[in-house]
Amino acid sequence: MKKDGAKGELQKNKILNAARELFATKGFEATTTREINRQTDSAEGLLYYYFPHGKREILDTIIYEGIQSRTNAIDFKFHSVSSVADIEQQLLNAFDQIWQIFSQQENYYSFMITIRERALLSNKQAKWLQDLIKEVRQLLIDFLTPATEKLGLQQDNIPQLVDIILSLFQSSIYDELLINNNQELNNQISHTVQSQLHLIVTSILVEK
Amino acid sequence: MKKDGAKGELQKNKILNAARELFATKGFEATTTREINRQTDSAEGLLYYYFPHGKREILDTIIYEGIQSRTNAIDFKFHSVSSVADIEQQLLNAFDQIWQIFSQQENYYSFMITIRERALLSNKQAKWLQDLIKEVRQLLIDFLTPATEKLGLQQDNIPQLVDIILSLFQSSIYDELLINNNQELNNQISHTVQSQLHLIVTSILVEK
DNA sequence: GTCTATAATTAGATAGAC
DNA sequence: GTCTATCTAATTATAGAC
């Protein structure tokens, strides 16, 4: 009868947490199992008790749990649209939620690992990553589509508008995390995206 | 009198080319010097004749040459603006140039390495990366600024518009290279960016 | 400039006591 | 479930012949 004892789960998480930080900051290959053991104050053999397949199994677990965590955190709670200003506000809230997700250290780490070790991912793992982005995209499309008539926009243009908005979101985060290597998301950037979104929404959407 | 003999340069480039491909596809740490030697059909010791400081020196050279190459390739040749349609066309040409740069395998490899091994970069190397993006941004600002009056746009809004346009460019490339892990840039994506740019430019800019 | 051979170190992983 | 001790293989790097 396999039951996750509290003690075992604790140690397993200690290993995962240490590995997540090390993989994110130094990279998967550059991190040694010895370093993980040192950081968890545990002996050489113990790691293989919890992860019989070694380092790669730890990576896989981090990738999986990271996607799970980020997916579960997405919960936009859109309500039906009234005005252009209302649309803008709801899109801002959505961006804020994404921003909050990446501001959490565990999510930040697992995202960085997923991108950085992208070449190591199995097809299945890569699909998780792509599906998460697709899901966000679809949620935004479903949110905007009912309002098409009011907004002087062709139904066909909605995906296009959504892609533009997503580009703003993505670029701001990628720039900050991948190019500037900042672990802490800067509020200034969030404001920049807000004003970009304002310009886009008020220019493209026209209340009728 | 140190003079780069043709033979020496050849071998040095063979090493750099092999390492560039391996670092980009497997990662820096995961690539062994043995593998580089095998791929260049040369013996164990030779690598250290050309790169006395070993693997890290090879990485630094690739990073440096990559930034140089991508920087030199940026040459937008904007001419002064007449109409909104003209602006759109010139921006499209700029995007096309960026697209072409990333379509070249060497540039693609060095870019992937630079992003993937971002955490290993020195401050100086990181600054090169940031400055390249800033330079592109500034070129676009300088291109659009003279046309401000004609376009019903505040001078202050130009950087904002440029950032939006750059987000479209960046996202399309990052998505393709980092998320989807495609080595070949897909023309479909280029068309998507074109139509996004069209929507943005025609919505935000108004001829007077 | 290029080679062979090898030193020195460190990596991931395992065996087996407690 | 956690520990110590250690194996095996691979890694970077060097010495020195040609």
Brief overview, please?
2 copies of one chain form a homodimer. Chain A has 208 residues and is mainly α. Chain A is built from 9 helices and no strands.
Supply the key terms.
HTH_TetR (chains A, B); mainly alpha; HTH-type_TetR-like_transc_reg (chains A, B); TetR/AcrR family transcriptional regulator (chains A, B); homodimer; 9 helices; Homeodomain-like_sf (chains A, B); DNA-binding (chains A, B); DNA-binding; Arc Repressor Mutant, subunit A; 0% strand; Tetracycline Repressor, domain 2; elongated; 208 residues
Describe what you observe in this structure.
Two copies of one chain form a homodimer. Chain A is mainly alpha-helical. Chain A folds into two domains: 6-62, Homeodomain-like (Arc Repressor Mutant, subunit A); 64-204, Tetracycline Repressor, domain 2 (Orthogonal Bundle). Chain A is 71% helix and 0% strand. Chain A is built from nine helices and no strands. In chain A, helix 4 crosses helix 6. The longest helix of chain A has 23 residues, at 157-179. The first copy, chain A, is elongated and about 70 Å long. Chain A binds chain B through residues 25-30, 115-121, 126, 129-130, 133, 157, 160-161, 163-164, 166-168, 170-172, 174-175, 178-181, 192, 195-196, 199-200, 203-204, and chain B through 25-30, 115-121, 126, 129-130, 133, 157, 160-161, 163-164, 166-168, 170-172, 174-175, 178-181, 192, 195-196, 199-200, 203-204. Chain A binds a DNA duplex (18 and 18 nucleotides) through residues 5, 7-8, 11, 32-34, 42-50, 54-55. Chains A, B: InterPro entries: Homeodomain-like_sf (IPR009057), HTH-type_TetR-like_transc_reg (IPR050109), HTH_TetR (IPR001647). Chains A, B: Residues 9-69 form the HTH tetR-type domain. Chains A, B: Keywords: DNA-binding.
